[in-house]
Predict the structure of Targeting protein for Xklp2.
Amino acid sequence: MTRQRSRPPAVKSSAELEAEEVEKIQKFKFKALELNKKILESAEDVKKPAVKEPTVPEGFELQIEKRLQDRQSTKKPQEGEEKPHTFKSQPLPKKILERVVGLPEKKVLHPTVPESPAFALKKRIRMDRKVEEAKQPAPFKVPPVPHYGLPFQPQLPESHHVEVCPFSFEERERERRALKEKKLEDMRNEEVPQFKAQPLPDFDTVVLPEKKKLEPTKPEPFKLLIDQRGAVKNSRWEQMLKVEQKHQEEAAVFKARPNTVTHKEPFQPKKEPRAPVGLNSSTAVETFELSTERRARERQEYERLASEKEALRALMEEEQRREEEQREKEEIARLRQEQIHKARPIRHYKPVAVKKSDVPLTVPQSPNFSDRFRL
């Protein structure tokens, strides 16, 4: 089967690779340009290049060096060692013992004098608004309505006039002013709280608060779920032990079996067959199988299965090939059938019947232009 398989070689031989390289080299041949004779003629008049002066190094001007010099010049000379600082308390001011010190005097606030808001002043200049002249709308001409048997009766729009009612804020301002005066009167009649300082504590006797004695914590046993589960498991285990012990006690009870020996046939000894001549009577002959025979049988079975699989695969490939050919033939026949032009017949539609409309005639009305928002 390996000899029957045909596959193209994936790797080219060395001779083919060499031939390809030679072909590439022949395609790209190097062609040298002619020598320019002017180069040789101008070589005699070569001038020596001028020597440049060497670079003179300059030092860096860093700002940090300047700042260090300024700092050293302005630094004060260090004085002798400073003396250790000693704490010295300030004397107690005697004003604290005589009267209250540190609280500011309470300022008496005068009540607010109400004033009317300047909504309208006599001095305020009134600017008359310019009333724009209202442009009269263009006349609307209605096209004449044809006569259909009913005379045209236009309806005039009804006139809507808005009644103007005077209003003012005087009553609301009067109520607000009365509430404000009442609140101010309540604030005037309110008693002013007097300041009373607390007495100075006595520093001669020290009174400590009573120490509370805490009771020791009483331990309580834990109520764990594992204990509850363990108790249930122990009770189940004890019950199982009791059941098993009961079964063992029932099995340990002796119960005699019925006598069946007296009813059986008596034992009769049988004579053994005689061994063949030339062989020991104690030797038993058994057949044996060589590994070569077993492997040969397994090989035959493997070859049979392989040949069946190969035949089945060839049969399936043949069936698939026939189906592909049949599908191609059907596709070609369908394409040929579609390419044939077939003219469609002329369609005959139902004739259109003109029917008189049953919709009633429109009653014309004049447009309702409102003059409500006109100036």
The two ends are 111 Å apart (CA to CA). Helices lie at 14-27, 37-41, 63-74, 95-98, 170-189, 225-252, 291-339. The first helix runs from residue 14 to 27.
